[in-house]
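One example given next:
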Amino acid sequence: KAYTPELFHKLGLDVMVRDELINNQLITSEAQALGIVISDGEVIKVIGHNPAFQDKDGNFDKTAYLTTLRNHGLSEQRYVDDVRKSLATSLLADTITSGVIVPDTLLQAVYKSQEERPTASITMVTPSVLKQVPAPTEQEIKAYYDAHANLFQTPEYRTISYVDMPLSGVQSKIDVPEEEIKHAYEERIQDFHSPERRQVDQMMFATEADAEKVADKLKHGERFADLAKTANIENKGHTTLGLIAKQDLPPENADAVFALKENTATKPLKSDFGWHILYVSKIVPEGTEPLTEVRKAILQDLSAAKANETLSRLTNQMVDDMAGGMTLEDAAKKMAIMWNP
């Protein structure tokens, strides 16, 4: 029997598909939020072990790989991204569900909540069918009270006093000497150092011939941005890598990219994913932020640390005073007199 929209809905298949899509999206979003990253090596390993991309001897066949992707209307970059996303979500899902045994009581509760269909009947009682109800006697009232005394109990209440010592209030009064700020800057100088970074774009090609054609056009003055729109590339519309440091690139490409001058491109480079031409449009030299630009952040860190030390000392003193018989109010007043930065 052919599946019609009505039958599809009647069998609940539309709900199952919707729930599956929602669950997959939730897991994907959570994996992205947690920063789960799958390495290029793991992606290559998974693709290489896919039987659809292997020859009769079980070896990875690049031609079969690219042919299969084209037959399914996929670019190589799109497929690699999908594999990486699938591995990240699988890792998160396995972490959540691995070794989990659901109690039978929970299974029964979930099953009942989803499958039970309660029925109800309504009886209308009007004042006309009620007889005169006699007033209860004192003995009946007392008996009911004794049997339900817990209904008439009130909870215990207590009056609480406390001392509020916000960190911000103490921190605003902390004085940090300029010598300490300079010393902290020198100790943390590596935190304020940025390596050389470059704005990099790339074009990916399925064949060396396609890459060489574009490389030749670049040599003759054609613009990289224009060629990225018209050339036969695998990552059309996704050519920007962003502002990146040398360690952010694969080792086989890093030296070539960081040897370029601004507004120049590499020769065609080969990788496990095909052929690449990388282009540098901007160079940001390495450098260290001066003290004048990071002084505020250092001062914030130092004053917060000193404020925490002060609060700890004052709190311990209050505890000692109250242990000696002083009230909270008197201990707080003494603390206010002691605290005179």
